[in-house]
Amino acid sequence: MSKAAHQDRKPWYRVLYIQVLIAVTLGVIIGHFFPGFGKALKPLGDGFVKLVKMIIAPIIFCTVVHGIGSLGDLKKFGRLGIRTILYFEVVSSLALIIGLVVVNVWKPGAGLHINAAALDPKIAASYVEKGHAQNVPDFLLNIIPKSFFDAFATGDILQILLVSLLTAFAVAALGERAKPVLQVLAYGEKIFFGIMKIIVQVAPLAALGAMSFTVGSYGIGSLRQLAALMGGFYLTAILFVVFVLGSIALASGFSIFRFLNYIKEEIFLVLGTSSSETALPGIMEKMRRLGCSESTVGFVIPTGYSFNLDGTNIYLTMAAIFLAQATDTPLTLGHQITLLVVAMLSSKGASAVTGAGFITLAATLTAVPSIPVESLALLVGIDRFMSECRAVTNLIGNGVATLVISRWEKELDPARLNDALKNSRSIIDLPPGLTPDEQAGS
Q1: Which one, of 238, 223, 233, lies nearest residue 102 by Cα?
Q2: What's the domain count of the chain?
Q3: Burial class (CB in 10 A: 0-12, 13-18, 19+), 247
Q4: Between 397 and 386, whose confidence is greater?
Q5: What pLDDT, on the 0 to 100 scale, is given for residue 437?
Q6: What CATH number is given to the structural domain containing 128?
């Protein structure tokens, strides 16, 4: 290791992901032993999520408009869009099918014999109201904001992406005259990412507050009754990341384990806040540091946050079949295929914020009436714990997707990419043909 690299290494207590991990541990302790105080810390987590959401819209806008507006050749964007959507559909469908297979083999709900009629329907009612299934025309119409600025006011990622794409096409059409606009957008990116670096410093406090509230509200004991479902879901998500995403990464020339180490700060941040939105600016910046173009990062990641939710897809099929097993609801193969198709549609556009996966599950159940919707009450107590795994898996899936599509676009060299991942460095710091180890010895 070079002397400069040694000097740049932070003390362990100043490393963000270690701070977040310590905060999560303290949150569990506070929530368990002092539940009242733990519940009172909820604003710490909520405030941090609001701060991050405040900055997401301008970051996406500047990144997308600057990236696509600088292309000059919109045919490349058309190719990028087709490849991205195709990748999302294949991998998302695979996640749904894997969840369906595992829950049928594992059978975590078998033997519970829950009488759905005895459950309080009011508990599930609010989620059902929020999660009513949308048809395709309604879904497409909801992507269009009421006004240009309404997309930024509501923070809807798909609406922001639509506005950004339209603006990017208009900027690209200006040709040489667009240079001053692109320069302003480039400075805007730096400013908003600078704001994000300031906000992320309080992430440990957010993780402490969120975890204290979760354990204080539901208690560690609430995990025991449904431990089989949680264990099966966590195990399935881990296997999906290691084997499915790992195989995709290997075929694209990089190691999934090196990638996980590279984004460990974002993983622990998501783990602490239960929302993958909190890591969106960070993952976009890290993908750019690895050499992915602004147009690829700006399109793939925001789109993936609505169309490539691998963790949410695994959860939908596993949770729905679990509820059927727990309430002794017989499901034929036809019922399960219907459930798969409905989940495939209802998961699109699901926000990455806490609880959205549960609301999407409600939408799925309303479209498959054979499973009693009242049974949702069984999962309310553990959904917060499940949302952490959903969010982390979604984050990893979108990061892998960005690197894979960048490789398809011939933006990345596999050897230099793995060197950057191995040493957790920006690829732009590596001179062509010189690995980090060779650089350290030079």
Answers
A1: 233
A2: 1
A3: exposed
A4: 397
A5: 38
A6: 1.10.3860.10
